[in-house]
Amino acid sequence: MNMTDALEACKPLAPAPHVLHVDADDTAALILATLLVPEVRVSRAATMADASSHLHAARFDLIILDADLPDGDGQALIDAFRAAGCHTPVLLYSARQPSLHHQAHAYLPKPWTSPRQLWQSVCRLLELDLAGKRQ
């Protein structure tokens, strides 16, 4: 290894995008985290209250949301953050069809979306060129 290679190897990696996955379903959360990690950091919230706490405490590059939450409609959470000026992209990943007035940037039906479709949608919303790493 020459000096240039050694210096290149020591360069810090770009920080991974941070995604908040809001979903009460433990299995869906595990599948999504397994699919996205290590290229994407994933934090999970199982309720609206937990999601709200996460959104106030950290900055996220994408929110993946199942609107059917045990403590309310997740769409109301997104509406509140849009009203507060939060413009983080949202991927609605839910068995429930979105209303005409939903605030999500994309929608994927759950559980009928393939892992490849989910990965491609996340990459597109994060503006990442990671598709090559997953083939």
Automatic annotation (TrEMBL):
The keyword Isomerase does not apply. The modification 4-aspartylphosphate is found at D66. PROSITE patterns: RESPONSE_REGULATORY. GO terms for biological process: phosphorelay signal transduction system. Keywords: Phosphoprotein. It comes from the Bacteria. Residues 18-125 form the Response regulatory domain. Signal peptide: none annotated. Gene3D superfamilies: 3.40.50.2300. InterPro entries: Bact_response_regulator (IPR050595), CheY-like_superfamily (IPR011006), Sig_transdc_resp-reg_receiver (IPR001789). Transmembrane segments: none annotated. SMART domains: REC. This is Response regulator receiver domain-containing protein. It comes from Pseudoduganella flava.
